[in-house]
Description:
Elements: E1 5-9, H1 16-23, E2 31-35, H2 38-46, E3 52-56, E4 67-76, E5 83-87, E6 96-99, H3 104-118, E7 123-126, E8 139-144, H4 145-150, E9 157-160, H5 161-169, E10 173-180, H6 186-200, H7 203-209, H8 217-224, E11 226-228, H9 231-247
Parallel strand pairs: 1-2, 1-3, 6-7, 6-8
Antiparallel strand pairs: 3-10, 4-10, 4-11, 5-8, 5-9
Helix pairs in contact: 1-6, 3-5, 3-9
Amino acid sequence: MQKKIRVGAVSYLNTKPLIYGFEQGELEESIELVKDYPSRLATMLQKDLLDIALLPVAAIPNIPHAQVIGEYCISADRQVASVALYSHVPIEDIQSIYLDYQSRTSVALLRILLRDYWHIRPSLLEAGENYIDDIQDKTAGVIIGDRALEYRNKFPYVYDLAEIWHEHTQLPFVFAVWVSNKEIDTAFIDAFNNSIAIGLEHLAEIIIANPFPAYDLRTYYTENISYSLDDEKRKGMMLFLKLLEQMN
Length: 248
């Protein structure tokens, strides 16, 4: 019997369209779906405990033999809504910033924008679990994911990092891609792409199954998030990885 391909993904709002097909039984004879935190998925891919994972772009350089596969990603052409810098004061008055412990890619993006776009050097603070309560006065914070959507109307200054990246580079920003640590059969990749496409065809069902009063998910899935990994996205991703290498 052929060994199943181990596929890892997170289960956040922005990933639900990408894994919907797998959860509905697509490729169930071919894959084993593993859900975990992004950092855990990266470690598992490093140790060859997974074959493919949906990874933050900043994790790619740490994966041996990393290959970006498939036609889909989590990206934004402009405003992403779920990755932003939140503050009570304008950007030029910020003295320190809490960095969301959940996202290495977003933190790296912020560092690049602070250096190359805003040209400011606030203190960067490692955020604890309840750090959002500490975003006060001239201390700002990066919030990502579902929580970022919940807090969009609770701060007077919200700087959408994907939107600022586009202003800076005129390119989209890619947050996560499907990465393998080995050669994957092209026939499987075709089937993999087809299974993901099913989720994007069933957004209405996904929205109904995941009620989220804080933000309109149809807007999020169709206007904020862009799921196709096209040439412009690849250019944006390669530029980010080049700048990330310079930061290290």
